[in-house]
């Protein structure tokens, strides 16, 4: 039976936005402070790394769980097997294509599309667009196949927070659930997100590794003295060739340390002066939408990145937990692309993520290559997509002022 983080006592709803969730405060596991250490400080000789696992002696007493990270930082867990989707029913592709009506681009439409494009650019003049002579319209309908795979992956890491004598959800409260048994609310399909949760019953309390449980450490700027050599007179009490004493240090040669404000020590930034840390296992869940795309029938020379963004007319859509390859499509390249995309996503995600949903679509994209004459020269531009976007190769009346051609 899974463990629902949002329903746990003292926990927070799993629908919170991405980022570390507020941690549930369950159980009590405190360690008394030693009053004799209250004012002591220690030299800081290293910088702590995050995340950091607690010492091995604490881990030895824990039950064996799949989230236990005794070596290394991150651990990736193989997901449970997914339920197979339904096979794709035989499709009459001729009926799909017959009902698809991609509008033909006429000379009037081609001219209006170019004028709209030119007017949107500050360094283009509309004279050429209004007076050009269209010589030829080469039209082609491309077929675009897309496969989207929405997956979920889970990894864990040790992390910590200052221990403030709050309630701790440690192993004395029970055994931690397996990471794939922890229930969380999935975001809308095909919308990427990352969320973090504390694994129940994984908390351990240990003195701070940075200040050795003292809450403060000796200032590295003044080495605990609270005063440093005056930077103005370099400790000489007077500046060179000046009879008067240094006004920056009032002739003492020393100034209060700005790093610690003269206290000689600083509050430990790791434990925030609390002297102890709560170590726990953090579950990081990532929802990712992988995309495979293929455009068939390319003969004209319009850049491929434009065709990837082009709006098309959808002629086929299939969505399920796992989709099956398309077969017997009139364009064999589309059927082969469907097989290749599904195989690639399955191989790439099988060992590290769980596939939640797949969606495959086929769209028809109109593409027109326009050849026109202006002032004795021949030029070309492209109209692509159902919304008549324009790509200009070499516009005759263009002045460089920083705008882009595409």
TrEMBL record:
Superkingdom of origin organism: Eukaryota
InterPro entries in UniProt: HSP_DnaJ_Cys-rich_dom, HSP_DnaJ_Cys-rich_dom_sf, SSUH2_homolog
SUPFAM superfamilies to which the protein is assigned, alphabetical: DnaJ/Hsp40 cysteine-rich domain (SSF57938)
Single GO molecular function: heat shock protein binding
Stated name of the protein: Protein SSUH2 homolog
The species this protein was found in: Castor canadensis (American beaver)
Phylogenetic placement of the source organism: Eukaryota, Metazoa, Chordata, Craniata, Vertebrata
């Amino acid at each position: 039976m899974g463990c629902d983080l949002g329903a746990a006592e003292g926990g927070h709803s799993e629908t919170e936005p991405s980022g570390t969730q507020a941690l549930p405060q369950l159980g009590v596991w405190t360690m008394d402070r030693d009053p004799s250490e209250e004012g002591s400080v220690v030299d800081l000789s290293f910088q702590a790394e995050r995340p950091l696992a607690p010492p091995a002696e604490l881990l030895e007493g824990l039950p064996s769980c799949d989230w236990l990270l005794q070596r290394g930082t991150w651990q990736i867990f193989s997901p449970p097997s997914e339920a197979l989707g339904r096979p794709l029913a035989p499709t009459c592709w001729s009926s799909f294509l017959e009902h698809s009506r991609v509008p033909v681009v006429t000379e009037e439409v081609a001219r209006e599309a170019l004028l709209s494009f030119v007017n949107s650019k500050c360094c283009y003049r509309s004279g050429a667009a209004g007076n050009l002579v269209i010589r030829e319209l080469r039209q082609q309908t491309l077929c675009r196949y897309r496969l989207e795979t929405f997956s979920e992956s889970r990894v864990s890491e040790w992390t910590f927070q200052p221990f403030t004598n709050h309630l701790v959800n440690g192993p004395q409260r029970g055994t931690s659930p397996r990471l794939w048994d922890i229930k969380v609310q999935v975001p809308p399909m095909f919308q990427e997100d990352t969320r973090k949760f504390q694994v129940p019953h994984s908390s351990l309390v240990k003195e701070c590794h940075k200040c050795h449980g003292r809450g403060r450490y000796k200032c590295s700027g003044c080495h605990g003295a609270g005063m440093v050599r005056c930077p103005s007179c370099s400790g000489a009490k007077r500046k060179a060739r000046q009879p008067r004493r240094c006004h920056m240090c009032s002739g003492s040669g020393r100034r209060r340390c700005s790093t610690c404000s003269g206290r000689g020590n600083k509050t430990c930034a790791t434990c925030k002066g609390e002297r102890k840390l709560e170590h726990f296992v953090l579950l990081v869940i990532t929802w990712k939408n992988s995309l495979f795309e293929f455009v068939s029938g390319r003969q004209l020379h319009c850049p491929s990145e434009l065709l990837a963004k082009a709006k098309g007319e959808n002629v086929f859509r299939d969505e399920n937990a796992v989709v099956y390859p398309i077969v017997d499509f009139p364009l064999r390249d589309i059927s082969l692309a469907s097989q290749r995309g599904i195989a690639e996503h399955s191989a790439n995600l099988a060992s590290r993520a769980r596939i939640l949903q797949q969606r495959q679509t086929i769209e028809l994209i109109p593409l027109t290559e326009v050849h026109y004459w202006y002032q004795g020269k021949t030029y070309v531009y492209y109209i692509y997509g159902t919304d008549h976007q324009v790509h200009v190769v070499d516009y005759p009346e263009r002045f460089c002022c920083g705008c882009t051609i595409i």
